[in-house]
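Hey, quick one: can you model this chain's 3D structure?
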Amino acid sequence: MSIGRKRGPILETARLRGQPMGDRHLADLQLIFGDPEVTRTLGGLRTAEQIQKIFERFDSHWVKHDFGPWFFVNACGEFVGYAGVIETRVDDRAGIELLYALTANQWNRSFGSEMAESVVEQAFGPLGIEELLCFTLTTNRASQRVMEKAGFRYLRNITHATLPHVLYAQSAAQWRSRSRSE
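Sure thing. Here's the predicted structure for all 182 residues.
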């Protein structure tokens, strides 16, 4: 599969640059989903075949919707992680999910928040999405802090993939109100 189709914009933050998904990002997904420390909160290690399926899912989402995950690098060009928005189902309800993951060596540097906030701005701005959902394991406080910093509010506990999760949400109206007050 060759990805050469038109993609979304480059996302720039104070310290990071996010590019829409391309062929070279399969190796980046392998860094994330092949790391036992990282995948402890992402449903476990994935095989090469499973990582390929994730890559294809993200790619088909870009093709169908003109949005999906962006892959972020730091000023040195080192892969930090990905963040984006994709369709999801939570409690049999369709929605758009903010998702993000970082390589373990990039943890505790606020990169998750930086990536999430830039994607949220893109989602509620140019993409015109009206609501975003975000969820993580109940034990993943680092991810919950990212959600909260990005303006998400806790809704309730849920079961996702047979595991206990917390569900957060944010509307475009909440984001606009928050943006004006900062």
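One thing worth noting: The first strand starts at residue 11 and ends at 12.
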